User: Which sequence fits this backbone?
């Protein structure tokens, strides 16, 4: 093919690839957003999990307090009963009950203390973790904002790029254009490649002497006999 056609085809390919790059960038946006939202909801779930853990500890500690109050009430009751009983063994039995209840109270006090320590630790680490996670959430949210901006830009660019491509297309003769489109189907870009030292710039295989000869004659569009890409020679 002649130098003018060669350069028109190269311009067409260049604009074609630009359209494809922008389309690929646009196509990636939904999954980028999805991943970012997933990160945010994971961070939020982590925060919630920590808060739930603290709530559980609070509920446990409340239950221990309630139980302690009940046992203390029993002790009072036994002591009142002791004032009323006449028999020594009844009195002894109540003393035994009181001792049991007081042991139970000490046990509960110990448990309560453990829970309070645990709560204190949990609250402190939750606070630190929430600070950290809030930062991360903020960063991901601002990334989402940047993706919106990127989408706006890409949509603008794709309009321009498509118009440029259409302009390049309109400058080419029909048969040339259909050859280009035919080759473009199913082949990885670039589809117009340089032949150097008899080697195709696309598949890097050596083309036959006949192909090279045809290309040098420069009358037709010549394609690589291995991969089918359109070949051109350096001026
Ligand atoms: Zn090839």
Assistant:
């Amino acid at each position: 093919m002649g130098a003018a056609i060669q350069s028109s085809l190269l311009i067409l390919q260049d604009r074609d690839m630009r359209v494809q790059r922008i389309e690929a960038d646009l196509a990636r946006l939904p999954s980028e957003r999805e991943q970012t939202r997933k990160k945010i909801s994971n961070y939020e779930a982590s925060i919630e999990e920590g808060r739930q853990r603290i709530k559980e500890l609070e509920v446990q500690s409340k239950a221990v307090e309630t139980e302690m109050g009940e046992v203390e009430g029993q002790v009072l009751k036994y002591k009142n009963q002791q004032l009323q009983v006449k028999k020594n063994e009844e009195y002894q039995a109540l003393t035994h009950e009181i001792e049991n209840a007081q042991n139970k109270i000490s046990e509960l006090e110990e448990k309560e203390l453990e829970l309070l320590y645990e709560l204190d630790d949990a609250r402190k680490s939750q606070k630190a973790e929430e600070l950290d996670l809030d930062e991360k959430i903020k960063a991901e949210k601002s990334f989402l904002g940047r993706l919106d901006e990127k989408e706006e830009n890409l949509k603008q660019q794709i309009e321009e790029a498509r118009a440029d491509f259409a302009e390049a297309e309109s400058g080419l003769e029909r048969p040339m254009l259909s050859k280009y489109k035919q080759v473009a189907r199913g082949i990885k870009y670039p589809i117009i490649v340089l032949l150097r030292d008899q080697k195709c710039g696309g598949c890097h295989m050596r083309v036959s002497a006949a192909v090279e000869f045809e290309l040098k004659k420069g009358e037709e569009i010549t394609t690589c006999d291995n991969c089918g890409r359109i070949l051109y020679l350096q001026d």
Remarks:
- Strands lie at 192-196, 199-200, 230-232.
- Residues 21 and 158 are 9 Å apart (CA to CA).
- The pocket of zinc ion is lined by residues 200, 202-203, 205, 224, 226-227, 229 (CB under 6 Å).
- The two ends are 12 Å apart (CA to CA).
